[in-house]
Design goal:
single chain, 210 residues, mainly alpha
């Protein structure tokens, strides 16, 4: 029988450590001699890496950041398969680690990709629908921030619907979706202000000093 407290400890520690891997910083410094935090939004995520380092670096960052999120959840699922809340705790810890990484001076990204990728392990069908909506929103508005904010609302709604229509679906995943969505909204406060006053950067626009 799995010790519940230990299950949460494993999930949170593994999630935070993996989430703290600052792929954008490491790739930028190793291959481009540039820290992406010194330009654009000042963040380490894929959007700012695209602006500051280019597409190749962005693809690498997306791959690594998605992998660290999926691995965080997978470890929690392996250690305590039926302790569903610990799976969400691992995913949330990975988002926290990505945003405040111990390996990069606690200056990271916004956690959107890490939070979204967790659903590859939690519910791949919802992940595919959310990804489709994200891509269409980003394409239509040419603003990654708007697409991220839309995801912060549509994913919890889809999770709630899945729980309502599927009795065996864990409510803990719904709770995680709400917390993750709230996290994304709070991490985008500066974007929300720029969207409101019409100064938010669009996809393809050059980076600016933060």
């Amino acid at each position: 029988m799995v010790d519940v407290a230990l299950a949460y400890l494993v999930a949170i520690v593994a999630g935070y450590i993996l989430g703290s891997i600052p792929s954008g910083v490491w790739i930028g410094k190793a291959f481009y001699k540039v820290d992406p935090r010194d330009a654009g939004s000042g963040k380490t995520g894929a959007t700012n890496v695209l602006r500051t380092l280019g597409r190749t670096a962005m693809v690498a960052v997306v791959t690594i950041d998605a992998a660290k999120s999926v691995l965080s959840v997978s470890i929690a699922q392996w250690y305590a398969p039926n302790e569903y809340a610990s799976h969400g705790a691992a995913a949330l810890a990975a988002m926290v680690g990505h945003t405040w990484p111990a390996f990069a001076g606690f200056r990271g990204g916004r956690g959107v990709l890490v939070g979204a990728a967790s659903f590859i392990a939690l519910d791949w069908q919802i992940f595919l629908v959310a990804l489709t909506i994200f891509v269409l929103t980003a394409w239509g508005t040419r603003m990654m921030s708007v697409a991220s904010l839309v995801s912060a609302f549509d994913v919890p709604i889809m999770l709630a619907w899945r729980w309502y229509t599927t009795p065996e679906f864990p409510f803990a995943y719904v709770a995680y979706g709400i917390l993750a969505g709230t996290f994304v909204v709070l991490s985008h406060q500066d974007n929300i202000r720029r969207i409101a006053n019409g100064t938010e950067r669009r996809i393809g626009e050059p980076s600016r000093t933060p």
